[in-house]
UniProtKB/TrEMBL annotation:
GO terms for molecular function: ATP binding; protein serine/threonine kinase activity. Keywords: ATP-binding, Kinase, Membrane, Nucleotide-binding, Serine/threonine-protein kinase, Transferase, Transmembrane, Transmembrane helix. Belongs to the protein kinase superfamily. Residues 35-58 are annotated as: Disordered. Residues 92-378 form the Protein kinase domain. This is Protein kinase domain-containing protein.
Length: 381
């Protein structure tokens, strides 16, 4: 065999031996790493399991995907579960809908323990539903905030993609219905009696007290959607502010945080048109002032009104013109309100407060504590 053939055979043999040796080394190394790797993965799975374990804290609720986690904030509810809520609402039947809050429907439900509650089932939209759930928990649930003029949150339930909030049931429904929807199904036999002037003033005072409380917490809360449909009335027609799905906390009194535009057309402050979209107490004050005019006139703030010269103006502008022209303020009061006992000076003072709240410049609007003080001087109960 010549030398060149021998060299080829030797090289091939060397390559074969080296390949076998490398393969053996790799197998040995894998053998040593496998137990350690398995142990590491096991510990990682345990940590992940701990992170997704049922824990009814506000932080963990933002990412919960497990089944049936709930908590009660009130002793009247000793247990809340999705099966109970499904039974109580007849599988969330449309017949039980009593309201349409931001990003969710509200149902009347009688729980197995006999307690009647309002159940809000939030939209399953990944962004809106989670955002509202977190907002309501951080405002009403996290610190169990209580005030006579705020709706009380009783608990929550999370099951899969469903997020449910449970509130006290407020008997008379929302203020919007009492102002604008006085009859049902076109039948005069199913009509509500119109709210008297004294009752309207009392309702407005209650909303003012609730807002003043929120704005003067150690960490103030801005509601951002004050309107008639977010004011619930109990059996005595006391006001309870509801629907905190758009609410935001601010870090210092009367300060603001940057955020997107929020609210309802007709109630939003003029600064929003200029791109100032911060959540501020003055924005809530503006919405409250619009609500005052709506309650007094019985007119919706987002519907234009034709003036005597044929022009269309907004509700606030129309009401202001009537008063500035020297006409009787009583002229703009809801026609369904009995005129007997209506006092011109009281109506004028009521509207003066409302006009202060809706001043064009936010810094010129009063604080809600000041509004409460002025309204308390009105003679109506």
């Amino acid at each position: 065999m010549d030398q060149s053939a021998q060299a080829v055979i030797a090289a091939a043999a060397s390559f074969f031996v080296v390949t076998i040796l490398v393969g053996l080394i790799v197998l040995i190394c894998k053998g040593y790493k496998t137990p350690r790797s398995h142990h590491h993965q096991s510990r990682s799975r345990n940590r992940n399991r701990n992170r997704t374990a049922p824990n009814p804290t506000l932080t963990n609720l933002n990412s919960i995907t497990i089944s049936d986690v709930s908590a009660s904030f009130d002793p009247s509810l000793d247990r809340i579960s999705m099966p109970d809520l499904i039974t109580a609402t007849r599988n969330f039947s449309s017949d039980g809908v009593i309201g349409d809050g931001s990003f969710g429907l509200v149902y009347k439900a009688r729980l197995s323990n006999g307690v009647t509650v309002a159940v809000k089932k939030l939209s399953k939209d990944a962004f809106q539903g989670l955002r509202e759930f977190r907002a309501e928990m951080e405002t009403l649930g996290k610190e169990k905030i209580r005030h006579p003029n705020l709706v009380k949150i009783l608990g929550y339930c999370v099951s899969g993609d469903d997020r449910i909030l449970i509130y006290e049931f407020v008997e008379k429904g929302c203020l919007d219905q009492w102002i604008h929807d006085t009859c049902f199904s076109g039948s005069s036999a199913s009509c509500r009696a119109p709210l008297s002037w004294d009752t309207r003033v009392r309702i407005v005072k209650g909303v003012a007290r609730g807002l003043a409380f929120l704005h003067n917490l150690e960490t103030p809360i801005i509601h951002r959607d004050i309107k008639g449909s977010n004011v619930l009335l109990d059996k005595d027609f006391e006001a309870h502010i509801a629907d905190f799905g758009l609410a935001r906390r601010v870090e210092a009194s009367h300060s603001h945080v940057s955020t997107q535009v929020a609210g309802t057309m007709g109630y939003m402050p003029p600064e929003y048109k200029d791109g100032v979209t911060a959540a501020t107490v003055s924005a809530d004050v503006y919405s409250f002032g619009i609500l005052m005019i709506e309650v007094a006139t019985g007119r919706r703030p987002n519907w234009p009104i034709k003036t005597e010269d044929g022009n269309l103006v907004g509700l606030a502008e129309w009401a202001r013109r009537v008063v500035e022209e020297g006409r009787h303020a009583v002229e703009i009061i809801d026609m369904s309100v009995a005129r007997e006992g209506l006092r011109e000076e009281e109506v004028r003072e009521f509207l003066r407060v409302a006009f202060c709240c809706i001043k064009e410049k936010a810094r010129e609007r009063p604080l809600m504590v000041e509004v409460v003080e002025i309204l308390n001087q009105l003679s109506s109960s």
